[in-house]
Design goal:
Helices cover 72% and strands 6% of the residues. A hairpin with a 2-residue loop joins strand 1 (150-155) and strand 2. Helix 6 (93-103) runs antiparallel to helix 8. It is mainly alpha-helical.
């Protein structure tokens, strides 16, 4: 169990893996004999470690761009989308989804309708996961300013407020997603 934990930890592209590997080496030298090496499988461990370090080195530049204090919302969005597109092109869809989620923690990006739309498109076209779609739409409806969903139009000399096609689309997607997930009608109503 102890070895599986280190195998798992060292297979992830995380900062600090060098220290984790050194800690494993120290623990192995203190507590394991030569006979235990069959359990440890050092060649497999080394292979996982090398692969994770390669993954980390490819992504470190993107992470460093995210840490830079971007001056404008456009720069922030561009940095996130470059990283997300890298993960999509590498067929790492779950990593791309987590990056979208991380990006929406930024208060400015959370209000960026275009960024939400890109996340929604990704979920519909790449993930094809209706639970994720419903979650995104639900949060979009809560977070985005109500003014983004209405517009005013002069008709016969009077000003009338209309619900935007975007809000209609979002509610339609939300209902389809709930239906596809076979959620109860009570949840759909709420």
């Amino acid at each position: 169990r102890f070895i599986k934990l280190f195998h798992r930890q060292l297979s992830l592209p995380l900062a600090g893996n060098e220290e984790t590997l050194a800690m494993l080496d120290k623990l192995l030298s203190e507590h394991c004999s030569e006979a235990d090496m069959d359990i440890i499988k050092p060649s497999l461990l080394n292979e996982k470690y090398e692969k994770s370090m390669e993954m980390r080195s490819c992504r470190i530049i993107y992470e460093s761009h995210l840490l830079d204090e971007a001056k404008t919302i456009e720069e922030k969005t561009a940095n996130w989308m470059t990283y997300i597109k890298y993960e999509i092109n590498d067929d790492q869809l779950s990593r791309a989804q987590r990056l979208f989620e991380r990006s929406l923690l930024d208060s400015e990006l959370r209000l960026n309708l275009q960024h939400w739309a890109e996340f929604l498109e990704f979920s519909l076209c790449k993930l094809k996961n209706w639970t994720v779609v419903e979650s995104i739409v639900s949060r979009m409806l809560k977070v985005i300013n109500e003014d983004s969903f209405t517009y005013t139009k002069a008709t016969n000399g009077t000003m009338e407020t209309y619900i935007s096609p975007l809000k209609r689309l979002l509610w339609t997607l939300r209902l389809i997603a709930k239906e596809r997930d076979k959620l109860s009608s009570i949840e759909v109503i709420n």
